[in-house]
Design a protein that fits this description.
With 255 residues, the chain is of the alpha/beta class. Helix content is 36%, strand content 25%. The strands form two sheets. A six-stranded mixed beta sheet has the order 6-7-8-3-9-10, sandwiched between helices. A four-stranded antiparallel beta sheet has the order 2-1-4-5.
């Protein structure tokens, strides 16, 4: 049974200026614990796809399914991590991580202990009482990840979460996050414009067409080396260049 399924999904936006068709006949499935990246030209509906899965939008046509049940409204089994960390500057690091639990009414001794453990696991155990302005960009994104995982979602949506970081921090955090999410056994969907990031982090890469978006290609990625996985090793693999060149050629026609 698929974890996620889009069945002939269409999405149209209506404004005073007219109608925009963002998605048309979008169909794909994602299995439990898969890490899947969505890439494609700007405006092709990738972020719309995440919003539909989270229940923030309802499709104009077709069905969005999680565990064979149609998504109907905000789905609390899905968590979103965005480009900006959106940490509240007046709350400590620990209090920022606890925010989602507070909103859900799930803050208790057990969930607080898990939140603290997440911070410790991500190298932030000594920074619980610090404030966001006292942390680097990479550290802030790790806090955002801890906040996202503290609510224990089944599915994690990542919308270009590393694009605002400098290149060195971005590469390091890609590796950390990919390792963490595999250990947590989460189903992950990443939207990115970075072909290398998509290949290094993912089990699959879905290529979207121009708007209205639909799936143009589906690449299965296997860059595990000697039974071990890391994004750094993935980038060094011979197959990495083959994947990269194929994806580059597909996207180059939209430039």
């Amino acid at each position: 049974m698929s974890k996620v399924e889009f069945k002939a999904v269409g999405m149209k936006y209506h404004t005073l200026e007219g109608e925009t068709e963002a998605l048309k006949d979008l169909s794909f499935t994602i299995e439990d614990n898969q890490f899947v990246s969505l890439i494609g030209p700007s405006g092709c509906g990738k972020s719309t796809t995440l919003s539909l899965l989270a229940g923030l939008l309802s499709p104009t046509d077709g069905q969005v399914m999680i565990d064979s049940k149609e998504v109907d409204g905000i789905n609390q089994r899905v968590a979103y991590m965005l480009q900006e960390d959106y940490l509240f500057p007046w709350r400590s690091i620990l209090d920022n991580v606890l925010l989602g639990l507070e909103i859900r009414g799930e803050l208790n001794d057990s969930s607080r202990k898990r939140a603290r453990q997440l911070l410790a696991d991500y190298g932030l155990g000594d920074f619980e009482d610090y404030y966001p302005t006292q942390l680097s960009g990479g550290m802030r994104q790790r806090v955002a990840l801890a906040r996202t995982l503290a609510i224990e979602p089944d599915i994690l949506l990542l919308d270009e979460p590393f694009s605002a970081l400098d290149y060195h921090t971005k590469l390091a955090l890609e590796d950390e996050v990919a390792q963490i999410l595999r250990e947590e056994k989460k189903t992950v969907i990443l939207v990115t414009h970075d072909i290398g990031e998509a290949i290094a982090m993912s089990d699959r890469v879905l290529v979207f067409s121009e708007r209205p978006g639909e799936i143009k290609s589906d690449y299965k990625i296997d860059l595990t080396i000697d039974g071990e996985y890391s994004t750094f090793k993935a980038r060094e693999a011979t197959e990495f260049n083959r994947y990269f060149n194929s994806l580059w050629e597909e996207l180059d026609i939209y430039v």
